[in-house]
Task: structure prediction
Amino acid sequence: MRRNIYLITIFTMFVLTNKAQTAFWTENFGTNPVCANVLASAYTSTNGAWTTSLTGTNQTFPNIWYVSATEAGMGVGNCGDGCTSNPTLINRTLHISTNVGDLGAAYLAGIGFNSDIRAQSPTINCSGKSGIVLNFNYIMWGVVNQDYCQIMYSADNGVTWSNLGIPLKHLLFLALVKGYGQHTL
Result:
């Protein structure tokens, strides 16, 4: 059975620490007062350039990764919002949205929209580190048994990939989790 990865997760911050809990790599995607369609594959931070890779077969209109404030980083426990409805929200996030434009955490689902696309950070040098911890804020929901996000890593700079896990979906309609959550590996 083919797995469809829609990757509707929104990441507001990646923090890598070692067992002494000193951050050695952080990405918060910055701020931008312009509410714009910035493709993740065109985003460069002080850490380097982000890229996207096709990981399977995409249908006719696959969803796309963006880095923008159309889904602004609202913090753990807060619901999503963005610069299109509130221009003062300028905290950018990594998120997936439609191929016709960045609508924030909105994406297209169903026939024709299956998306198998991975957003990849710049290389993170973990040499000399042990007990590494990855911590990030996210919000995620979608079609049951189809939409999910895999957290993966590569020890050989992207030649092979290993799955670190799948964060839980937020059950917003059941009010079990409200808005952004936090995931630690």
